[in-house]
Design goal:
By secondary structure, the protein is of the alpha+beta class. Helices cover about 30% and strands about 35% of the residues. GO terms for molecular function: copper ion binding.
């Protein structure tokens, strides 16, 4: 009986040490998530969240057009299943001269019968080309609201920098349109109430 008590204490102490070590390991892993995520993005060529947030903030600089160089810019579009829209680019790709401004239109249509608000999230691949792709005007800078069955054209003005690394001769600009449910609810709250016809005077 006396031997069981020390054994029980040892087991409890061992369990406590194991749980404490697990908590410390989880705490350290939480701090390591960010650098591990950035390393993963670099290895796979995926953009990190910080890089994506800087895409829409890119500002053009005055550059001389490089007429001797061509860069192929491809356009890719996806729509989240929660967003009842059609969203396509008018062309799949363009050949451009670095330093020159170009414009391309994107077509969107609300397939539902009610107003829906969406937001386009851009990304550039390969990620190394991100700092060298500038948007002068882009629908992705703001929320986009379409009434039921409404169609619209969303223009994009862009420029590829002449400082784009020489080994990159092709890049892909992708847009993923997401639904903003909070904006939808705001639209419903701000909508005017239906007019009620008054009964004619008797």
């Amino acid at each position: 009986m006396n031997q069981r008590v020390p054994d029980k204490h040892r087991k409890n102490r061992r369990t406590t040490l194991l749980l404490s070590g697990l908590v410390v390991a989880m705490f350290g892993f939480g701090f390591a998530l960010v650098p591990l995520y950035n390393l993963f993005c670099q290895i796979t060529g995926t953009q990190s969240l910080s890089q994506r947030s800087q895409i829409g903030l890119a500002t053009p600089t005055s550059e001389r057009v490089d007429q001797a160089r061509w860069v192929t810019v491809k356009f890719d579009t996806t729509v989240n299943p929660n967003l009842p829209w059609e969203f396509v680019a008018e062309t799949n790709k363009m050949r451009v001269h670095p330093g020159q401004t170009y414009e391309v239109n994107f077509h969107a249509r609300n397939r539902s019968h009610s107003a829906v608000t969406g937001q386009a999230i851009p990304s550039v691949a390969p990620w190394q080309a991100t700092p060298f792709f500038s948007k002068l005007e882009c629908f992705c800078f703001n929320k986009q609201r379409l009434d039921g069955s409404e169609k619209t054209i969303m223009p994009l003005q862009f420029m590829v920098s002449t400082k784009l690394p020489a080994e990159i001769n092709s890049l892909t600009l992708s847009y993923s349109f997401m639904r903003l449910k909070e904006a939808d609810s705001d639209d419903r709250e701000n909508a005017l109430p239906p007019m009620i016809a008054s009964a004619p005077d008797q």
